[in-house]
Amino acid sequence: MSRIRSCVSRAVSLFLHPYTRGSPPTGMSDEQATTEIPEPDADLVARIEEASPEQTAREIATLRERLEQLESELAESETAREELESKLTRKQADFQNFKKRQQKRTQQVRERATEDLVERLVGVRDNLVRALDEEGEIRDGVETTLRQFDEVLNAENVAPIEPEVGTELDPQRHEVLMAVESDAPEGTVADLHRPGYEMADTVLRPAQVTVAE
Q1: Of 75, 108, 127, which closes a domain?
Q2: For the chain, how many structural domains are there in total?
Q3: What confidence score (pLDDT) does residue 141 get?
Q4: Single residue among 75, 96, 121 that ends a domain in this structure
Q5: Can you give the pLDDT at residue 210?
Q6: How far is the C-alpha of 51 from the C-alpha of 63, rounded, in Å?
Q7: CA-based angle 146:149:150, to the nearest 5?
Q8: SS3 letters for 86-113?
């Protein structure tokens, strides 16, 4: 029995102090390495001596089950992490799409507000043009105002729609008032009654025309 205890003690010492199985640490003599090895814990030695193969097998099985459980929990955590990352990616994409839609809507509202303003302004311009038919000192002032007015419209990318006689009708840009006799080809613009306006690709007001019959 004492021989077994001695072997167990030696094994525990080797386990606790692995450098005893080879060379001592640098700067330590063999004698120091030997004398500084503490005695193994008596309790630990006793448990190792008393452990039966069956008990050891049960403990190993328990540890294996615990390891499998931890691996399973780790796999579940990894799956949950991947799902969260996927959801986050989708949410980020949804947010970017929402942001783009909002920017587009804001731009459309801004453009529409500008279009509404220009539609009112071109009516004022019509009055200025008619004022040019008046004689007197006011004419010079109207011409100056009209020129400045056109500069503002041009800066806003507003262009007049003024089809020439004989131009083919464009339902999007021309409003037909009536059909008249004309030397122009049948079905084309016979005369311009009121110019229209467009801003970029948007028709603000179609030109009013008569059509040749």
Answers
A1: 75
A2: 2
A3: 76
A4: 75
A5: 95
A6: 16
A7: 90
A8: HHHHHHHHHHHHHHHHHHHHHHHHHHHH
